[in-house]
Design goal:
The protein has two domains: about 170 residues, Rossmann fold (3-Layer(aba) Sandwich), CATH 3.40.50; about 100 residues. It contains eleven helices and seven strands. The strands form two sheets. Strands 3-2-1-4 form a four-stranded parallel sheet, sandwiched between helices. Helix 4 runs parallel beside helix 5. The mean pLDDT is about 90.
């Protein structure tokens, strides 16, 4: 059976979006949701809206970037203030934390979409996401959230390629995740901890690093970056400034993970439990 071309997949996405007639896109500003939102805007015009959540679990830097993207590409945008820390069980940071979060968040977006007169909600899940630990998918399926990128058979790499062809600055943007994903499962979540992580990662971003994570292990900060960037962090003023900055936030120990950045690295604890 011949491999489906990228243009054929994009056409399939176009057909799928047209069939929805109107849609509210769950918009984070990341690679996938940005691409989906722009495609929906081009195809459905005023029959689409982007819904963006803002709360302590979301990076302020990423939020501002998402707002700028929406303005640049003329996306109708509705910002929703959310309180995931108030969701029963969420602050306990269980393995199904993402399920609790998505169930709450999607319910709020569904109510907002209905109020604004939009028939469907779509999120930017892609084909590769089906191979990862994504408890949020369960909530999305339960609430009938559409996944047009999966329906079109688009992978992350293909979405990046199409985004680049369309001139979207998000085409090479690193993977995004909420700040709670930096905290090991079972360690309670607080607004203070999340703000601490966001500020710690800002120190890395200010050094010009595009892909980075600060994993929070109590008074220890475990830094994950691309191994090619190690040399920038282990010598000279950059190292001294980073150590001083993170210690000022309350971290007593600052460690560089020699494996480098690994998406969802804290999920390994769950994999070990299953063995």
């Amino acid at each position: 059976m011949p491999t489906e071309t990228l243009s054929a997949k994009k056409e399939k996405l176009t057909v799928r979006l047209k069939a929805l007639q109107s849609v509210a896109v769950a918009f984070s500003g990341g690679v996938d949701s940005a691409f989906l939102a722009v495609m929906a805007r081009q195809i459905l015009e005023d029959r689409m809206i982007a819904l963006k959540a803002v709360s302590p679990i979301h990076s302020g830097r990423e939020h501002q970037a998402a707002l700028q993207f929406a303005e640049t590409f003329d996306l109708p945008l509705k910002v929703i203030s959310t309180d995931e820390l108030g969701v029963p069980g969420f602050v306990d940071n269980p393995a199904d934390r993402c399920y609790l979060c998505k169930q709450y968040l999607i319910s709020l977006m569904a109510a907002q979409a209905e109020k604004l007169g939009f028939t469907h909600i779509a999120h930017g899940a892609n084909l590769d996401d089906l191979d990862d630990y994504r408890p949020g998918f369960k909530a999305a399926k339960e609430l009938d959230i559409k996944a047009p990128l999966i329906d079109a058979g688009l992978t992350k790499a293909e979405i990046r390629r199409l985004s680049r062809e369309m001139g979207l600055p998000t085409w090479n943007r690193p993977a995004m995740a909420c700040l709670a994903s930096r905290v090991p499962y079972g360690m309670p979540l607080t607004k203070t901890i999340l703000e601490k992580i966001a500020q710690a990662e800002n120190h890395l971003y200010d050094l010009g690093l595009a892909t980075c994570r600060v994993r929070h292990h109590g008074n220890l900060a475990r830094i994950e970056v691309d191994p090619a960037e190690f040399s920038r962090l282990v010598s000279g003023p950059a190292r001294e400034g980073l150590v001083a900055g993170l210690k000022a936030l309350g971290y007593d120990h600052i460690c560089l993970d020699l494996e480098g950045y690994v998406q969802g690295s804290l999920n390994r604890a769950l994999e070990q439990q299953e063995k």
